[in-house]
Model the fold of this input.
Amino acid sequence: MEWLTIKQAQIGLQRKDFSCVELTNFYLQKIEKQKKLNAFITITSESALTVARQVDKKISQGQALDLLEGIPGSIKDLILVKDSRATAGSKILDNYTASYDATVVDRLKKAGVVILGKNNCDEFAMGSSNESSAYGPVLNPWDATKVPGGSSGGSAAAVAADLGLFSLGTDTGGSIRQPAGFCGVVGLKPTYGRVSRFGLMAMTSSLDQAGPLTRSVEDAALVLQAIAGADDYDATSARRDQEDFSANLNKSIKGMRLGLPKEYWQDGLNGEVKEVLQQAIDKYRELGAEIVEVELPHTAYALAVYYIIMPAEVSSNLARFDGIRYGRASSKAKNLWEVYAKSRAEGFGSEAKRRIMIGTYVLSAGYQAAYYTQARKVQKVIKQEYQEVFKNVDALLTPTSPTVAFGLGEKASDPLTMYLSDIYTVSANIAGLCGISIPAGLSKDNLPIGLQILGAPWTESKILNLAYQFEQATTHHNQHP
Amino acid sequence: MPLKATEIEHLAKLARLELDVNELEKFPQEISAILDYVKRLQEVKGYEFDDGLKSPISLLRADVVSVRPAVEQEKLIAAAQESEDGLIKTKPVFER
Done:
């Protein structure tokens, strides 16, 4: 039962090579054995086994299973699973139990998945290393002295260490793709609006998207299939015709035009990472794709746009944590003001506080025009730039991160240095694109290097196709920590 | 130019955050560094947008009461620190 893909697990269940309860226990035991990774905040073994028994009953009655039925996976602790604890990686919610399922969770439950538990993450999705979690950092399964990336660090580590067949993460500035890259797994950020945000604790409402982390491209397509689609409870979810994301995986990519944005391939990119990724680009040439250099002149401003818009929305979204409605309240509060000020002071970590304050600043009177309004303008410029580029290419190839996974504690003391690790991922969120990170090789120190494929909005099928063809022509996805 | 302590205190007040001594010491410099970085956006000039910055998508549902399960409401109110008769209690808004 080790290192299965969703498809292989499905076949194993149908053929009765193992039962769903056996498969579920296999992962629960592995999670326990690997607890030093700290990839999980809550383990939901009882409800997992209840679902597993129901699946086994179905199998014993000779019924066929749906594609995701009986498939064990986990959910980032930023996403609500009814009656399970949901902390968002924060102290302020350490006593909070979700009263409803997020739509994505509801859809996965209807598809029959077995939820093993909630993954550790950076506090309120703020971070690129999972070091800001109030529940301790997550370790990279490839090297326990390195970070797994963030904010979906627990999700990426769980999938990389075979603690489940998939995890559902969220991506606002790269939080699925970057940890997927650092941990050598597949991570997909759908187009904004593709997946419902109802039941995701809001970080940046105009950028957040939930998406799958898996060990194969095909698995990512399957999970996306289950969660995608309009939701009445999320007005920002798009009403579009149903699409089969797995239908085009096998298509030849001969003649497809892939752009290399020159701004992504220059200074700041680690030499070894560049070398490995050059080989990946060569592989695409071998597969018949045409490689063209393109320009995205405003790339240099994307991170700044992100670090204005995101904190602005964070400062608004986190205002709901007031020590009254839910979550921790300070026992030292003597009046209403102190209920707010002290509960939030005690409950939030430094990164959350910093971002709330930056957001407050850029939205405050006298500064809003110069910062927030200007950021929205530059966002539009960047969006249009990508629109233009996608008229001439099918997709873009970029590094996922400028480096391999860095050491625990290495960047924790300088927020700005930490922010710069998002430099290749934020544009996709800012411009509303879809993006996927796939394993493209290992460094000399045996650390994963991710290749990112960016697609125009609504082109998940295309980037999945491109990712799949590369995967099938290489063996990187078979390498395990 | 680093933010003054008074500016940080003002922001903390707006954000309803009580900062401790360490934070009051470190935040001015950390936050200023980030604000200095994002200031570069002011270099981008010459773009005006006729439609303002409004998103083209607007979806309103029918103006009818939509009902979620009652048990959900009970659980939500139970999540509050203090409640009474289905209402959430807070400390007084107005000081006597």
